[in-house]
Structures are given as C-alpha cells and as structure tokens.
Amino acid sequence: MEFKANWIRPAKDLGDVCPVFKKEWKIKKPLKKVELYLTALGVYEAEVNGKRVSGYVLAPGWTAYEMRLQVQRYDVTELVREENILTVIVGRGWMRSPMPGFVEAEYKKKRMEQPCGLWGELHLTYADGSKEVLASDETWEYGESAVRFSEIYDGEHYDATFDTTLWSHALRLDWQTDILMMQEGEEIREIERIGAKSVFETPAGERIVDFGQEITGYVEFCVDAKAGERIRILHGEVLDKNGNFYRDNYRDAKAEIQYICKEGGQTYHPKLTFFGFRYLKLEEFPKKARPEQFKAVVVCSNIKKTGHLSCSDPDVNQLFSNIFWGQKGNFLDIPTDCPQRDERLGWTGDAQVFVKTATYNYDVEKFFTKWLHDMAAHQRKDGGIGQVIPDLLDAGNPSAAWGDAAVICPWQIYQTYGKKQILEDQFDCMKKWVDYITGATTVPYLWAGGEHFGDWLGLDAPSGSYKGSSREEFIATAFYAYSTQLLVKAAKVLGKDAGEYEQLYQNIVETFRKTYPEYLTQTEHILAVHFRLAKDLQKTADDLAEMIKRDGSQIKTGFVGTPYILHVLSEYGHSDLAYTLFLRKEYPSWLFSVKQGATTIWEHWDGIMENGDFWSADMNSFNHYAYGSVADWVYEKAAGIRPLEEYPGFERVLIKPMADKRLNWLEASIDTRNGKIASKWICTPDGIRYEIETAVPAEVEIGDMKMEVAPGTYTFWG
Ligand code: BGC
C-alpha cells in the first residue's frame, strides 16, 4: 500500500486535554465505496457523522512504535452522506504514557513529551470508477475534546458538558511515515459486558460496586444527573481482610475515572484507557447507586476460544475459569504480566511460560505473530532480548527464561498451528538470541554471568528475595541448551544447515552434565528432566518425586519450574503425585487462591494469605496468568491430548489420558487447525470409561492398550 498523507498535530500544546481532529468534506457525485485509513501517535477513537467507524478500541494498538506502527482500514461507506464530518480523538495511549511506574522521572518526561499526531487518508471511490484521496494535511482542523485527561495507568477525565466550539487548522508534524504498516495483529474489541452483582457499603463507609469477576476493560455506567454533578470512581481487585476497598497494589497507577455530568440521563465509558478490576469505589456519584447502572466492559484482543476444560470438581472448574479469564485479561494487544498496576508490560518470561496454554485456550497465532515481529524489531544489536517487548526498559539486562521467549514462543506457535511462516519470520531473531548467549557467557557452553530473574517467585527463595533457590547459572544454562535445541529443530523444518548448532547443543549438554552432577531444588530437577539434560531421566524424575514428598507434597517452584512440574511427574510414572499437587487445596497450590475467592490467576500462590493479610503491597497482582500454565498439563496429560512434534498443527495426535479417581470425570477439547480433538474420562463403578473424539488420525494409549484410530468417536474401558 502506497500512502500519501502527512502527519498532523495540534498547532498548540493542549496539555492534558486530548485533541479531537476534524475533516469535513462534501460528496459531489454518486459513491461506490469510502475507506478510511488511520493511525495515531497515541490511541484514537474515530467517528464519521457521529457514528464510530468500527468496534476496534485502543487503536492502533501497541507495537515497537519507532519502527512499526499499524494503520487501520475501515470501510465507512455506510456512514457517509452528502456532507460529512470525520472526527478523531487522540489520547496518550501507550506511546505517550510515562509508563512504567518504576523508571526514572527523566525517562518518563521524555516519553510524555513526544508529540501527539494523527495520520489519515479517506479513499473515495465513485460510481463512475474515479477515485479521490483526502489525506491528512493542514486543511484538517483540531480542537479540545471532552476528554480532559487520558492515560493508560491513571485513567480518564471526561466533561460531558464540554462541546468543541473552537476549531483551528492543524499543523504538519515531521514524523516518519516509513514506519507505517497495515494492521497485523488482532483487533482489540469489547468482547463482553458483565452486569454488577451488587452495590454495598464497606465497614469503612465506602460505596462499592462488585462485578463478581475480575476483568480488564472499563466500566460503563448510566446515570440521571444535573449538569455539573461530578462522578469519581476508583478501581480495585480485592477487598482487604476487613472488607474495605483496597488498591495499594496498583502502586503508582491512579486508575481513576472523573466525569462531569451533563443534564439528564446519560451513559458513559472511558474511550482511551483500560483498567484491571473487580470492584469500583464510588468516591462521588449522584444519588443512590444501583447495580443496574453499571456494566463491566471486557476489552481484549479479538482471539477465538478454541479450548475447553471441565471436570467434576467445582473448585477445579473455578481454576479453569480463572485461567481463561487470566488470558482474556492479559491479552490486550500484547501478552502482559498484569492489567492493573503501573506495569502492564509485555514481560517476555511470563509469555514464554504461558504460551503453550495460550495456544490451546485461544487461537493466538496472529496475536503472537505481531508480538514476535515486535520482538525481532526490538532485538538489540548484540542479539539480546529485552525483559519486556515492546522494549521500553532499554537498560534491562536480558535474562535467561525471559529472553528465551524469542525461541520458545515461535516454536510453540509453529507446533500448535502448523505453519512454517512464523519460524521463517523469526529464525534470525531466534539464532541471534542463541548467539547472544554464546557471546555473553564468561565460560564456554554454560551461561555464566549476566543478570537473571532465576526461578522468579520460587517458594524456596531465601528470605527477602523474590528469586527461588535454584542456581541462576543452572537455569540459564538449561535454557541455553533448550533454546539451542529448538533452534536446531527450527532450522531442520526450514531446510537450513544446523550443523554448527547441533555441535553447540552437544557441547552445552556435556558441559552442563560435568558442571552440575547433582540437582539441589525442585526446579533444578524439573529442568534437568524436561529439557532432557540429565543422563538418567527416570532417576532424576524419581528423585524429584521423593524431594516433593519430603517437602510435604508441596510445590516450591516459581515461574521457571512451575509450568513443567506436573508434566515431568506424569511423564515418568508419578501421575498420582501430579494429581496430589494439582488437587491440593491448602497453600501452596493452584486451588488455594480459588479457596480464597480468586476469579483470575494470582501472581503469588498466597496473594491473600490464610489470615487474610496480603503478600505485600508492592508486588501483588491478582491477575497474572503465569501459573495458569498448568492448563497445558490438563490438556496434554490429564485429558491426554498430546501433539506429536513431527505432525505440527495436530495433523496427527497421541491421545493418552491419565485418569485419577479423586475426580469423577474430566474432559478437555481443542479446536485445532485440523478439527476438534476431545477426550473425556469418567470413573464409573464398572471401571473408567474413556470417550474420545478426533478429527485426525490418532494413536491411543490407555493403560497397556495401544492402538491407532482413524478420525471418529470412540469409547474405551480401562
Ligand atoms: C512482573 C513479572 C515479571 C517480573 C520479572 C514483575 O514485576 O510483573 O511478571 O516477569 O517482574 O522480574
């Protein structure tokens, strides 16, 4: 697509107020089609003749803006009349936000000082076949909008009494246009509206709205008010142990809505920001508030649900629900760590940990493709991958298990969806990451040195530390080996010569074995088995099982060990123990947070402790999907839907369920690119009944029984 338009900006600085840009035009002859191409420095909402041009919210999304900025195309033919007005409000969005909360003031200032800009083209195709392009230039106007303030973390202020009456000509903005590209990711949309469950008063006398579910998005409220009356709303995820409103864990994110009412009935929701919340505190609100006045609008990338999990235990079903909600809440254009506090960043480690589950739960091929392209764009010259993508923490050192997202994520996308293109696109980035480690280590064939997050939040962390006790260089080397191995596999898929990396892989494994003759923690055992580094895999898995039992049949793992722990146990004959950990309801466990009332996955196993205290105020998110990665064990091991590496995209599968009588039944299904694959087991007085549905040829293994089946539905007894 050849674009012609110039960037434009307001002629003067409007401070906190979001500008609205305007283009008026008249139609002189019969039209066939009108297309609008639009993007902005910030986020925008566009209307033609007072009607929104699309359901896309927070456009143009979040990319590596200096290199890649998405342009949206809207067909607005239906909205066009003889005399037309296009208006576009532009907010700070991600680009001009001072995010994140914990960086230097100087850096924040620099981000905030970037100019507000709009870029647009109206393409008119007339009935007679002729064409005309109205491109943004100085004929477009701007004024102050009713959005008086808008920012990703701090929220939005809106004055419904404000009318834009003063319009001036916009100026040209000198900004790159070679960064423009057509929309590549999924659109961000309002996907659901949830009514408030209750409005109540806390012991501290606060007025609270409860939606009964933590979501990411914004509230839509309707109110009957006098002009000038004010509404102030704060957001919170949980109540404290006394039942009062709590928001210390949002840290510096104000997450506040201010709204000046116009006269009469009105409905409003923020346009250019979002929040992670379950509760609202009505600091100011006219009259008595009723639940019917509030809806939580769920905003998420438009990903299609493909996975289904359920079983006979209501707590486990709540866990499943929390996992899906955790994904919806953190798949808002990029995979974020959390949606509420002054962070909301594309932490690479979190995405790596969760990517397999993510691909089974939803179709995220397009979503990850865009993010991985941004990763490649932001890869540092030396091949290092930042801690977050888009990489706005330039100074952050690449960490093992975080940077490895560069290899693990594209490989997983290829495995689940079966298209080589993602490997093609990312191969260079994958290779440069492995080369980065080779160049960065102080000891060949290990990853020695560097700064790492270790087994982040591992429960075996020494007091006062966020990092579990597993040795950082052990983890780093294990991931070095794993990434190198995946790189070799990717090279083979693409028909590239991988000899050099095969040798490198052998050398890493050998050196790893010599350097680490024994494993000290749960996570060290897990990585040694899962990445097939231990010489004796079975013995290492048995040792892990013993260690877990000695630890009181409890997980001690953090971000790095948790995603694989149950896989390793089930794979090596300890399925029983895997279920013990999975079904455990006391702390620490997946179900502890469920027992504590969680509706999404928590950052900490004990975000709210047994006694009702919080883990901390400074780092305690109640919507952090990482530990939700347990779902891929449920799909693959509990229900037994296992992809076969040589048949990417589920062209052929192994179905090997592992039932456990502590549940009466369990079922899972995935709508793969090759059709639906479903597996259910039911414990009956006559034995265990297995119901299998497969759209592809499958190898079925139930106990000692092994057979090959054609696509179809089957029942087996075991
Ligand atoms: C984020 C994590 C992230 C970590 C890295 C945190 O603040 O929320 O999920 O991976 O930092 O250390």
TrEMBL record:
<dbReference type="GO" id="GO:0005975">
    <property type="term" value="P:carbohydrate metabolic process"/>
</dbReference>
<feature type="domain" description="Alpha-L-rhamnosidase concanavalin-like">
    <location>
        <begin position="202"/>
        <end position="299"/>
    </location>
</feature>
<dbReference type="InterPro" id="IPR008928">
    <property type="entry name" value="6-hairpin_glycosidase_sf"/>
</dbReference>
<protein>
    <recommendedName>
        <fullName>alpha-L-rhamnosidase</fullName>
        <ecNumber>3.2.1.40</ecNumber>
    </recommendedName>
</protein>
<feature type="domain" description="Bacterial alpha-L-rhamnosidase N-terminal">
    <location>
        <begin position="30"/>
        <end position="189"/>
    </location>
</feature>
<feature type="domain" description="Alpha-L-rhamnosidase six-hairpin glycosidase">
    <location>
        <begin position="305"/>
        <end position="637"/>
    </location>
</feature>
<dbReference type="Pfam" id="PF08531">
    <property type="entry name" value="Bac_rhamnosid_N"/>
</dbReference>
<dbReference type="Pfam" id="PF17389">
    <property type="entry name" value="Bac_rhamnosid6H"/>
</dbReference>
<dbReference type="InterPro" id="IPR012341">
    <property type="entry name" value="6hp_glycosidase-like_sf"/>
</dbReference>
<dbReference type="InterPro" id="IPR035396">
    <property type="entry name" value="Bac_rhamnosid6H"/>
</dbReference>
<dbReference type="Pfam" id="PF05592">
    <property type="entry name" value="Bac_rhamnosid"/>
</dbReference>
<dbReference type="InterPro" id="IPR016007">
    <property type="entry name" value="Alpha_rhamnosid"/>
</dbReference>
<dbReference type="InterPro" id="IPR035398">
    <property type="entry name" value="Bac_rhamnosid_C"/>
</dbReference>
<dbReference type="InterPro" id="IPR013737">
    <property type="entry name" value="Bac_rhamnosid_N"/>
</dbReference>
<dbReference type="GO" id="GO:0030596">
    <property type="term" value="F:alpha-L-rhamnosidase activity"/>
</dbReference>
<keyword id="KW-0378">Hydrolase</keyword>
<feature type="domain" description="Alpha-L-rhamnosidase C-terminal">
    <location>
        <begin position="640"/>
        <end position="701"/>
    </location>
</feature>
<dbReference type="InterPro" id="IPR008902">
    <property type="entry name" value="Rhamnosid_concanavalin"/>
</dbReference>
<dbReference type="Pfam" id="PF17390">
    <property type="entry name" value="Bac_rhamnosid_C"/>
</dbReference>
